[in-house]
From TrEMBL:
This is MaoC domain protein dehydratase. Residues 11-120 form the MaoC-like domain. InterPro entries: HotDog_dom_sf, MaoC-like_dom, NodN-like. Gene3D superfamilies: Hotdog Thioesterase. It comes from Actinosynnema mirum (strain ATCC 29888 / DSM 43827 / JCM 3225 / NBRC 14064 / NCIMB 13271 / NRRL B-12336 / IMRU 3971 / 101).
Length: 153
């Protein structure tokens, strides 16, 4: 269930709180292939299904950056902030990929609000949100990222 915040002040009050987990999303070969097309990263461990089956992971794996790019999809199922006209990606403080995501695995995001602070002169807020992407059946997370988002009222 999506947690809805009734504005930036209510969201800021959640700093230090884990907001929960979103639903599972299956990573498909089609997503991996489309990501390869978009980025030009056609490494065989991602796109050559037969060769990858005999490779170190036993099958094709999603690009680490594909896993990272799933954050908007996965996080919107965890929380939303009302009264915000837009959220702008400001950057990342830290990103790690502790374990691979094999094609066919399901992933989900756990979200923690690290901090919310003044972000500019127009009432904007800068939120630091820690996102942990879990891969079903894996002992380690697939991705741990500290995202920085500018929230504009």
């Amino acid at each position: 269930m999506v947690r809805r915040f009734e504005g930036l002040a209510e969201f800021a009050a959640a700093a230090g709180e884990h907001l929960g987990f979103g639903p599972w999303h299956e990573v498909t070969q089609r997503e991996v292939d489309l990501f390869a097309e978009a980025t030009g990263d056609h490494q065989w461990i991602h796109v050559d299904v037969e060769r990858a089956a005999a490779g170190p992971f036993g099958g094709p794996v999603a690009h680490g950056y594909l896993t990272l790019s799933l954050i908007p999809l996965l996080v919107r199922e965890v929380y939303s902030v009302e009264g915000v006209s837009m959220g702008v990606n400001y950057g990342l403080n830290r990103v790690r990929f502790p374990s691979p995501v094999l094609v066919g695995m399901r992933v989900r995001a756990g979200v923690e609000v690290v901090s919310v602070s003044a972000g500019g002169g127009g009432g904007e807020r800068q939120a630091v949100v820690r996102v942990v992407i879990e891969a079903e059946g894996s002992a380690k997370p697939a991705c741990v990222a500290e995202t920085v988002v500018l929230l504009v009222p």
